[in-house]
Design goal:
Layout lengths: L1 H24 L9 H12 L3 E6 L2 H8 L4 E3 L5 E4 L2 E8 L2 E7 L3 H15 L2 E12 L9 E9 L3 E3 L24 E3 L20 E4 L2 E3 L10 E3 L2 E2 L2 H7 L10 E2 L2 E2 L6 E9 L7 H11 L1 E5 L2 H10 L4 E9 L11 H23 L1
Parallel strand pairs: 1-5, 1-6, 6-18, 7-16, 16-17
Antiparallel strand pairs: 2-4, 3-4, 4-5, 6-17, 7-13, 7-18, 8-10, 9-10, 11-12, 14-15
The structure holds 2-acetamido-2-deoxy-beta-D-glucopyranose (3 copies).
């Protein structure tokens, strides 16, 4: 028994020595960051800081990669990590790291978080296409919203309860009735014998703010965030994009007027492709929302949490269900919209520095 104990102690001692030795000679080697990748990240960061460019999908990324304003780094054009490709180069003479997120909030959040924790990034410019809920704007216009919210976190109320009834777990601060709700019954097209709208079992969904854990806050102590402002300085600079000339035709199909860049009050994001007139109009009337997309608010929330300046430049590719009943406009105009967004990003970076 004693000898077994002694052998075990001896083994533990050797293991401790090995671990200590390993730690002092290798800064990396745990989790997903190999020694090789760690060295490359160090090398890249030494040449920073960079402006981070975050873009949802390849049809939005391609016009940037093909732009004459983008010059890929000759020696180190990209680093693949955790299913993402981080591209290095210069855009409008500014050092950038470009990352494609993939569709929707989770992907956008993960890719942005990786970008910000792995690399020396001084700010984030997010761009892409979006649905348009603002009747004063048209497809092809490029919008820069001052505030972004994630409108897909809901507390779905039980049938029978109404505005004056507390939500489940509301008293513990997990949920709130402060932001408001969507009442499905308001969209019924059925009336009773007296011509009054009747309710339905879907009742209300109450919109909720996100929980965030700021990088300089107390770990595990949540803060709430619904409207996330973009960076003040970036937003001021975006005002100068007003006179940027943008494309207005796809092949021989042209838009009714030349597109413009406009700063707007609000954009919203959720894991929902909105191609529905009633929901579009709810988002516009309730929130004064213009651009509707599936990523910007996720990028905004991560930048808020990491305390890094952020802006989103989103061109309008369709009317989010508010157009003709035949089809969604994105089928025709998404390529034009993506190009317009890239043109606005390039000019924005030129103006920023
Ligand atoms: C409501 O129902 C009537 C009759 O079924 C129909 O004509 C009308 O188009 C419907 N309205 C909407 C907004 O769906
Ligand atoms: C709604 O947003 C537009 C720009 O997007 C702005 O001009 C207008 O003042 C806003 N209205 C309200 C009530 O906030
Ligand atoms: C525009 O023309 C190109 C080349 O002929 C074609 O591949 C593309 O599908 C056209 N786009 C639209 C929206 O019609």
């Amino acid at each position: 028994m004693v000898s077994v104990m002694r052998i075990w102690l001896h083994i533990s001692f050797v293991v401790v020595l090995l671990v200590v030795g390993f730690e002092s000679s290798e800064a990396y080697g745990y989790g997903g960051i190999s020694h090789e990748i760690g060295k490359n990240i160090d090398r890249i960061n030494k040449m920073g800081p960079y402006l981070g460019i975050v873009v949802p999908n390849s049809f939005e990324l391609d016009p940037l990669l093909q732009s004459p304003s983008f010059v890929a780094d000759e020696k180190f054009p990209f680093l693949d990590f955790s299913g993402r490709r981080f591209r290095f180069g210069e855009l409008a003479n500014e050092k950038v790291i470009v990352v494609m997120t993939g569709l929707s909030m989770l992907n956008a959040g993960i890719a942005t978080e990786l970008l910000l924790i792995l690399f020396r990034v001084k700010g984030v410019v997010h761009y892409g296409i979006a649905g348009n809920a603002n009747p004063n704007l048209q497809v092809g216009d490029v919008t820069v919203a001052q505030y972004w919210a994630h409108t897909g976190l809901w507390n779905w109320q039980r049938y029978g309860d109404g505005q004056n009834d507390e939500l489940a777990l509301e008293s513990s601060g997990d949920y709130t009735r402060n932001i408001g709700y969507l009442r499905f019954s308001d969209y019924n097209n059925i009336t009773d014998q007296n011509g009054k709208y009747v309710g339905n079992f879907l009742n209300n969904v109450w919109l909720q703010p996100e929980e965030i854990f700021p990088v300089n806050g107390t770990p595990e102590v949540r803060q709430h965030a619904f409207w996330v402002p973009v960076d003040k300085h970036y937003f001021t600079v975006a005002k100068k994009l007003k006179n940027l000339k943008l494309g207005s035709c796809v092949n021989t199909t042209c838009l009714p007027r030349t597109p413009v860049v406009v700063r707007v009050k609000r954009g919203i994001s959720a894991n929902v492709f909105v191609d529905n007139s009633a929901y579009r109009s709810f988002l516009n009337t309730k929130f004064n929302a213009t651009s509707i997309d599936m990523e910007s608010a996720a990028v905004a929330l991560v930048c808020l949490q990491q305390k890094r300046p952020f802006i989103a430049i989103r061109s309008l590719s369709d009317l989010a269900g508010g157009g003709s009943a035949l089809s969604n406009e994105a089928n025709i105009f998404s390529s034009l919209a993506a190009q317009n967004a890239v043109d606005a990003v390039v000019r924005f970076i030129t103006l920023l520095y």
